[in-house]
């Protein structure tokens, strides 16, 4: 009995196992790991833009969630890329590219005669993206390190700029919108993808959703026109914008 009691005490005092340094995100798509709160822009109220609370940036520690096996089943990314209608020889940008889930699909669409510029704030994300591109033998993706107000896109270069569940996390939307407008070619488009705030059944935290009304409130006064929209994705808005006169 004494031996059993001693063993029980020892087990109770044993330290708990250490957590993994690269935690596996939860299956539900809810921005699994948040990076530190972005520094506020002194020119506007900290943490808000056009009445919307800015979400935190997803950390590279949650990168594996971006390439989860069931992502196409959940979001129908195949259909999304059909709607983008990229063509060989075009120049496309994946803004907030993460570890390159969409960048590599875009690279296949534009072919060797085209290019994809993959922009992200976190060098760790870009390293993972480059490793995936190298492993797949993809050579037409160029990574660029962005800053909170500067996606580092060359002017008059992008036939398409894709933002998938990224725009709502931007720390300085005003400056990024201006930079994107400058980066578009004459007939260039922005493809904005955001989880639908209007749909309570979309299993995403409210902070990581946007309504169409809010998107238009932010884009239209800043030199953009709504070109078209597609409502056939399971969880997300897909809205195309062009530069307005």
Automatic annotation (TrEMBL):
Query: Residue span of the signal peptide, if any?
Result: 1-21
Highest taxon of the lineage: Bacteria
Query: Any keyword Plastid?
Result: no
Methyltransferase domain span: 89-196
Instruction: Give the region (Disordered) as residue ranges.
Output: 16-49
Keywords assigned = Signal
Here the segments flagged for biased composition (Basic and acidic residues) are: 36-47
Record bears the keyword Signal? yes
Extract the PANTHER family matched here: METHYLTRANSFERASE TYPE 11
Put simply, this protein is called: Methyltransferase domain-containing protein
């Amino acid at each position: 009995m004494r031996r059993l009691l001693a063993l029980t005490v020892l087990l109770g005092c044993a330290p708990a196992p250490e957590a993994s340094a690269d935690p596996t995100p939860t299956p539900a798509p809810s921005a699994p790991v948040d990076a530190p709160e972005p520094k506020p822009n002194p020119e506007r109220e900290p943490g808000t833009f056009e009445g919307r609370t800015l979400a935190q940036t997803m950390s590279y520690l949650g990168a594996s969630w971006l390439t989860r096996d069931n992502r196409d089943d959940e979001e129908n990314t195949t259909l999304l890329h059909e709607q983008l209608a990229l063509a060989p020889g075009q120049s496309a940008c994946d803004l907030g590219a993460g570890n390159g889930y969409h960048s590599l699909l875009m690279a296949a669409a534009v072919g060797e005669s085209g290019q994809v510029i993959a922009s992200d704030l976190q060098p760790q994300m870009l390293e993972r993206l480059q490793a995936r591109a190298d492993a797949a033998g993809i050579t037409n993706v160029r990574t660029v390190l962005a800053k909170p107000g500067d996606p580092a896109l060359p002017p008059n270069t992008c036939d398409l700029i894709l933002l998938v569940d990224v725009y709502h996390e931007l720390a300085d939307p005003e400056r990024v919108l201006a930079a994107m407008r400058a980066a578009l070619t004459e007939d260039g488009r922005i493809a904005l993808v955001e989880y639908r705030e209007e749909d309570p059944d979309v299993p995403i935290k409210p902070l990581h959703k946007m309504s169409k009304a809010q998107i238009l409130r932010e884009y239209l006064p800043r030199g953009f026109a709504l070109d078209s929209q597609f409502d056939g994705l399971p969880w997300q808005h897909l809205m195309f914008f062009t530069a307005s006169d």
